[in-house]
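ok, trying the design again with the full structure, not the truncated one.
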């Protein structure tokens, strides 16, 4: 059995951090400080904490629905799905690549697995987010050819000679995997059937030898040409058919509600979005516009996808995925009409050493504080929850910004379709340290992001064959007995997530919530995150994240959002003055999702709608459950 042994006093990942203290605790102050959001673009700040600029009580039922994971277990593994479902995951992100569609476009190559997985989603009441992607390794329906080279070809050559050119289609067949995992990377533009000589779209990245077997790929659809061309329309029509084919599989599986995410990042695998990446001097189709805004090929592809999906499946949410890592490239109000939401991949959870890793080090005028701490940060929620980087997601998630939406949409959704931690990037060298980091990352990220404006968060990832990888499931899950019990095989993060989600059992879909307010006072001498002219104290990153589960129950995640997850924090006590209840709570308890312990909390009534309580917190969320 895997146990959370790292919570024993002697088991830590790093020496305890030496923290400065002050002789006296500061007076009680309001929790919310709107000035924390006042960091004008493109400035950044180490001292501002943007999520402390606003406080909202969210519905508990929405928290439950937003707990998701990227399902990536190879093959068919009923146990993996069952473990994740029992842990409380209510949405799976499932990638379906266009390259898996058969040449006749009547099905996908892994149709059996997709139907199996969607059927289990229905059984376990899991809402799928279906990622539509076209990685340039296998971007669209294709045929693979293997041909033998009839003559040597030097690096940089623009012509090859094949022993056999049967089935080679000029302009659509290309030589694969020359510099990257890239299908038809170098296109054959002209074929001499008599000699086997083939002209190429660009110079070969490496030399080829006579007699060598070449892997060729014939693309049924061409990479994206500019909008308005015949080639673009042909590819877009094929892509839309692909989107509808995937949606049809979800409907056939009896899925009542699902989401469609259009594309996955622009950081890798995206050459298929630009035909000119397959050519060199001259371009196939010169293009000077912005591809991700109106008139651009990617924008237009998404527009047509949204329109087609909405016509047949109006209840499906269509999510813009092109800005996963470039959150601000396309303004929300300028996304294609009918787009229901957009997705983010913030990460930023690995080690960052400052001032070395500070953005714009050569522009001190962009540092709002005029000060950069000397520190190493490993933040489980990622840098995007801070203003350390200009591109803080809180610029899009604060209540005022969330009013923005594209044409034809009233309710816009924010999806975090990937977020997680790679333990090795934080210096972890063993499984125990890795499980601890993944536990902290999952608990803190679900609680903070789902309270601060994210509607759905998919943890990355469900599976990895190594404990030091990013997966939450047991690395040997595919070898375990199908009837294995959760308590016998679940990893520490899965155990903790199950305790977290079970605390929300019985949530009801409230029409309105009670907007809680808070004053907070550190009872113990306060510690600091970093010292300096503009210090950041633990009380500045104290998190109070309220959810209302029913008319008479509130669940509040409380913890200190420390900036280095490898340094376990001793308990700290905070005095909370909570206001805004319809009726004064009569009882309270503090649930620890890691240890499973529950501790009674004494309440002191302050007014008809207010109580005061002292709570002991750590560097991961404990749940303050308040019952009227």
């Amino acid at each position: 059995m895997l146990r959370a042994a790292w919570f024993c006093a002697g088991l830590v990942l790093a020496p305890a951090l030496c923290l400065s203290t002050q002789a006296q605790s500061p007076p009680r102050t309001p929790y919310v400080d709107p000035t924390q959001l006042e960091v004008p673009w493109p400035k950044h700040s180490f001292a501002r904490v943007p999520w402390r600029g606003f406080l909202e009580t969210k519905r508990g039922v929405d928290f439950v629905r937003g707990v998701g994971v990227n399902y990536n277990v190879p093959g068919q593994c009923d146990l993996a799905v069952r473990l994740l479902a029992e842990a409380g995951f209510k949405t799976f992100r499932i990638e379906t690549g266009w390259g898996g569609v058969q040449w006749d476009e009547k099905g996908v190559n892994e149709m059996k697995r997709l139907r199996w997985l969607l059927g289990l989603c229905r059984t376990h009441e899991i809402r799928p987010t279906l990622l539509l992607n076209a990685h340039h390794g296998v971007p669209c329906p294709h045929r693979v050819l293997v041909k033998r080279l009839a003559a040597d070809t030097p690096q940089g050559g623009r012509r090859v000679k094949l022993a056999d050119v049967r089935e080679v289609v000029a302009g659509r067949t290309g030589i694969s995997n020359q510099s990257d995992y890239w299908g038809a990377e170098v296109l054959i533009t002209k074929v001499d059937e008599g000699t086997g000589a083939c002209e190429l779209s660009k110079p070969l990245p490496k030399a080829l030898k006579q007699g060598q077997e070449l892997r060729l790929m014939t693309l049924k659809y061409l990479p994206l040409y500019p909008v308005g061309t015949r080639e673009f329309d042909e590819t877009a029509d094929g892509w839309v058919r692909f989107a509808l084919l995937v949606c049809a599989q979800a409907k056939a599986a009896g899925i009542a509600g699902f989401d469609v995410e259009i594309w996955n990042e622009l950081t890798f695998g995206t050459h298929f979005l630009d035909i000119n990446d397959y050519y060199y001097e001259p371009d196939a189709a010169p293009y000077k516009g912005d591809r991700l805004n109106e008139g651009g090929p990617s924008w237009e592809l998404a527009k047509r996808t949204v329109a087609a999906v909405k016509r047949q499946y109006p209840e499906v949410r269509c999510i813009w995925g092109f800005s996963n890592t470039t959150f601000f490239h396309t303004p929300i109000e300028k996304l294609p009409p009918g787009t229901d939401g957009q997705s983010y991949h913030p990460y930023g959870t690995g080690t960052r050493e400052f001032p070395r890793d500070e953005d714009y080090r050569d522009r001190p005028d962009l540092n709002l504080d005029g000060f950069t701490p000397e520190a190493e940060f490993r933040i489980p929620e990622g840098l995007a929850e801070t203003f350390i980087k200009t591109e803080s997601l809180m610029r899009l998630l604060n209540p005022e910004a969330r009013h923005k939406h594209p044409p034809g949409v009233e309710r816009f959704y924010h999806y975090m379709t990937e977020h997680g931690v790679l333990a090795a990037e934080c210096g972890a060298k063993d499984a125990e340290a890795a499980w601890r980091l993944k536990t902290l990352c999952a608990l803190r990220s679900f609680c903070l992001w789902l309270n601060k404006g994210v509607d759905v968060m998919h943890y990355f990832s469900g599976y990895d064959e190594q404990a030091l990888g990013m997966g939450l499931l047991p690395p040997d899950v595919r070898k375990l007995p199908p009837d294995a019990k959760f308590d016998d095989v679940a990893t520490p993060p899965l155990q903790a997530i199950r305790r977290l989600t079970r605390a929300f059992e019985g949530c009801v879909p409230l029409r309105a919530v009670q907007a809680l307010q808070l004053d907070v006072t550190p009872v113990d001498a306060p510690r600091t995150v970093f010292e300096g002219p503009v210090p950041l104290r633990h009380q500045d990153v104290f998190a109070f994240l309220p959810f209302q589960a029913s008319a008479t129950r509130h669940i509040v995640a409380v913890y200190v959002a420390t900036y280095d997850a490898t340094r376990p924090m001793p308990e700290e006590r905070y005095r909370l003055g909570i206001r805004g209840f319809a009726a004064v709570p009569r009882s309270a308890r503090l649930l620890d999702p890691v240890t499973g312990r529950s501790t009674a909390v004494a309440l002191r009534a302050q007014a008809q709608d207010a109580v005061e309580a002292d709570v002991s917190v750590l560097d991961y969320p404990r749940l303050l459950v308040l019952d009227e």
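Keeping the full-length input from now on. The first strand starts at residue 29 and ends at 30.
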